[in-house]
Amino acid sequence: VHSSNLASLDAKLIPEHLLYLCIDYRRKFLSSSKSASRYNFYKDSNAHEIEQMLKVLAPLRQQIFSLLNEWEEQTDLQKFLDVIDMLLTLPSDIPLAKFLLHKAQVMQENNSKFSFSNQLKSVFDLMSSWQKMELGSWPTLLDEVMDQYENNAKK
Prior knowledge:
Blueprint: H1 2-30, H2 47-70, H3 75-89, H4 97-110, H5 117-154
């Protein structure tokens, strides 16, 4: 009886443990890492944005999977599912630039064939915010290139 009470207590505390881990991770790795002004869209990971992507893609994947069960012969649905599965299996520590352009193009090409407008709007909004983030990081990237040229000139 005692061990079942402990198991029940552990199960009830799982959300609190997950919240603590998320807060601790952000405190240790995100706030102490490069500041937003030093963010390199092409080289630095962004776990928060990857988390946002997962929240957007999971319901879309479920809807596509359901439709694919009804219409197994639809290769466009399978292409969508393949792209989403590939994105969901990528590690969270790779740069956003690796996710962005090609996948957006594939999804836009297939957008008109099926009614995923609500879910795809979320995907396109997320990608648009990433493109803005990319453009916002360019001044820092240019500063880094200038620093590299200055350092190389001193050699």
